[in-house]
What we know:
- Chain A: Its cofactor is pyridoxal 5'-phosphate.
- Chain A: It comes from Chitinophaga tropicalis.
- With 408 residues, chain A is an alpha/beta fold.
- Helices cover 40% and strands 17% of the residues of chain A.
- Chain A is globular.
- The termini of chain A are far apart.
- Chain B is built from twelve helices and nine strands.
- In chain B, helix 2 (31-41) runs parallel beside helix 12 (244-255).
- Classes of the chains: A alpha/beta (408), B alpha/beta (256).
- Pyridoxal-5'-phosphate binds next to helix 5, helix 11 and helix 15 of chain A.
Amino acid sequence: MKIAENTFGSRYHVDEKGFYGRFGGAYVPEMLYPNVEELQTNYLQILRDPGFQQEFEQLLRDYVGRPSPLYLAKRLSEKYKANIYLKREDLNHTGAHKVNNTIGQILLAKRLGKTRVIAETGAGQHGVATATVCALMGIECVVYMGSIDIQRQAPNVARMRMLGATVVPATSGSKTLKDATNEAIRDWINNPVNTHYILGTAAGPHPYPDMVSRFQSVISEEIRKQLLEKTGKPNPDYVMACIGGGSNAAGAYYHFLDEPDVKLIAVEAGGKGVNSGFSAATTQLGKLGIIHASKTLLMQTEDGQITEPHSISAGLDYPGIGPLHAHLYETGRATFLNATDDEALQAAYELTRLEGIIPALESSHALAKLGEVGFKPDDVVVVCLSGRGDKDMETYIRNLPANTGDNA
Amino acid sequence: MSNRIDQLFAAKKNGILNIYCTAGFPELNDTLPVMRSLQAAGADLIELGMPFSDPLADGPVIQDSSTRAIRNGMSLRVLFEQLKDFRKEISVPVVLMGYLNPVLLYGIENFCKKCAEVGVDGVILPDLPMDEYESDYKAIFEQYGLHLIFLVTPETNDARLRKIDGLSRGFVYAVSSSSTTGKDKDMSHQQQYFERLKGMQLKNPVLIGFGIKDKATFDAACAYSNGAIIGTAFIRAIENTTNLDTAIRQFIAGVK
Lengths: 408, 256
Ligand SMILES: Cc1ncc(COP(=O)(O)O)c(C=O)c1O
């Protein structure tokens, strides 16, 4: 595997100024300028270094367990009348795609001479993946997590602490992912020299969206190889992924962005319904603005205050969307759907009973829309199964339909 | 020289006291009473915070004041309404400080026009990148006679400092240490940085902010600059008071 090469010039990749169309950039206060500039200046060079690539590849193979399988889900395919493949990011070490990025960023942090790492987390998957690589490298780790998420993703909090990370509750605003990210950025302002911020999604100031997408692009690179082996063609008809900030989607789309015959489907968190006032479907509800130092679509009031989103899934409970995805939305390159809390739950129960796989609530949002795309029987569909459901067991058990678990 | 900030620095070179207060705080209609008391008590410059839901560069005290102001109903629209006639009674220069998102949504040109209309003299937008300001907005700010004030920090290198000084109008805002607002970082470590700033002989006056909280820290900052900015300590002094005017006069008397 290789970290995606320079793609300046492509319509769907970042430009030299850190923008995707009119989205992106680095709207950081001066206090963060040196940190961000250090990354901007160095990231491509570090990522292209053969020694770095070798270390990255080796850890992904021997530590994370890549390549992750591409699994033809037969019973799911029968039900939705298409050839549905699941890209099994849930089988990665730590249970989600997040670790692809944290491996890359911890190696980068080491090369930049950083001795302390901070991260934000929503579902706790990114926090666990960060705490894991910090344990691996013997680096101090502080993870910011919304106090509501600390409650709803308790197993991941315990894992982070066991891994030696300090978990700091974010108690401002909606007490979820947005606020955890604010606190991480504030920590970085206060510790600008020794600390690297491992941002967990394809959002934030340039170069994060591009850097995170490149680390995650191992997903689409493997999909191409695996599909070629299994079907004789590297390109599927559809790639589907859920979108929080957009890192698993960016990774699943990456090598297909400039392949117009591959249709990209993004599924946002509809919450209790797009127009219910409790939703996180940013493209449907958002307007152009700046969130976490990136110019992108975000949910805001008519006065420009960022609004509090809602999703049953902590990893999608974010009022913005990474700038790449805002651009894919605006250009029509990707089709954006959304799944409600209930639809996601039903999709999770369905996958569990049809395939024996308990998915993360985030990934379940992508699965929930299999019936709405309008597949033809020959279509090859890849769904990015971004994570496993261990962390969501409490929610799953609480919402279990009455007849499940008997003899259905 | 029509901008009040320039007039102030032309008339007074040292010991300039700039007080930050979030607009619409503690109560929605306290914006003007706070300004009146500040002027009467002897503040040289007033920095009015435009509250934002996600103030990345601010510590808990200013965050909480913003949350409270938003809850009180403060917004750019309400603020400009409150400021409609303020120049009939307030003569000290006034700078608006806030984050880019609400201003972008309001519209940069619209915003500048409103500032000029009501008599605001300058603006601080910490998350507006210098390059974007230069290419997209500078002409608009200048057309309306509005000064944009940029920040520098201990980590800002000399070349960038020169560039910032070249673009900044009114003054340069020197952040005392690498921190969010309201952190108690020890300023004695900042001597080298302050001396570097002083030695560079910038074209703009310099005000030092972040961590200035009392007479000792104010005087220490003034030794290296034209003056200093107090925010968090002032917010603390008025957040729970029953007599705003007295609290403000006492606070300013304690610093000057
Ligand atoms: C399993 C899983 N999938 C998806 C996401 C959403 O993030 P992103 O949109 O960056 O892939 C998360 C975030 O926590 C997650 O844990």
